[in-house]
Design a protein that fits this description.
alpha+beta, two-stranded antiparallel ribbon, single chain, 19 helices, 8 strands, elongated
Length: 418
Amino acid sequence: MSPAIEPELAGRLARSFALFDDGWGLSTLAEAFAEVIEPGRAQEIAGRVIDLMPVEPVDPVNTLRRVLVDLPKLPTTVVRLDPVVAPMRFGAVEIPDLAALGLLLNVTPTELEWFADRGGWLRRASQTLSHYRYRRLPKATGVRLVEAPKVRLREIQRRILRRVLAGIPADPACHGFEKDCNATTFAAPHAGSEVVIRQDLRDFFPTIAVARVRAVFAACGYSAVVARVLAELCTTASPVVELRGLDYSQRTLLAARHLPQGAPTSPRLANLVARGLDRRLTGYAHRHDLTYTRYADDLAFSGKADLDTARLIWTVTRIARDEGFTVHTGKTLVRRAHQRQVLAGLVVNDSPAAPRDRYDALRALLHNCARTGAAAQNRHEHNDFRAHVYGLISWVGEMSPHRRDKLLAMADRVDWTS
């Protein structure tokens, strides 16, 4: 048995740990304890604490004090049993521990801790130390903060996307950022409907906190430690300096760990987190002879002319709230057959198609490019204006080969170098 730790000493050790903000870990506990007792004993006690609690408890200081008081009652020789290996689900790749995770992501243990930002150091760090670049984009009701990971973290997140998340199925109602899905597959099920309702989820990515991301990885069968680090690699808490000037609700969401809008893993993780929402709304739609699809934060329903739209909107708002999301009531649109029904920018009154005015505007742009040169028409200063225009042609032409061929013929007459 180890020498008894008196309650007073246990309190001092716990308070010493509270002064450190480097997160829960063997080295942090040992360093904190060494401020109070001799280093050799500090290392031994820290090791026994980590054996008992490898993951940080909810209330670390008070829990640590109680554990330290009870620690001498436990034998110093720990009989290690073979770990219970939980079966992996959804085709997820096996990652038994953090060492295996480091190998999968091609990072060292130190880098793993640094990029996961376990202690939240980067919220107070300078811009040069941050793992993200920040920029603000205007939107109808304010600004959107885009948090784009820098090169090294972006590559780590891409590995997680390819090696961990790619095989996990989203709900069939989800059409955004999924394989073989796009705006057309999202809108097509509603084509020709007598009434179409579109609702919008407010602050879709920032609303998804780290605990919900961790739950996705845990559901795949990963241990608590591996799920925690994976979740921390895919989330961030925005630095205080980047939150200035934003409204209160945005600051509150962005100050806590959340899915960053700009990370390659965020769309996939958001779809997986929203799986419960999709299943409940699909069930509701089936019970009431409706059609439901989702594209990122856009929810679409369609049905017959006698659809009780007020009840539908109320029910969807309530289900979304139960699932941790908020419906942006000001963006809810109800469109009947005699009105233009638009989903994801596509008119769905008959079959999904780009609006005529968008097609005409693109034709006018190509005509002017051929007449004055492409550079003179690049009024928004796109880095690759040619690629931008061809992207628009692809979007318009996806639903209409005839329109696509006409636009491509016009683009061939443009001198993109002038």
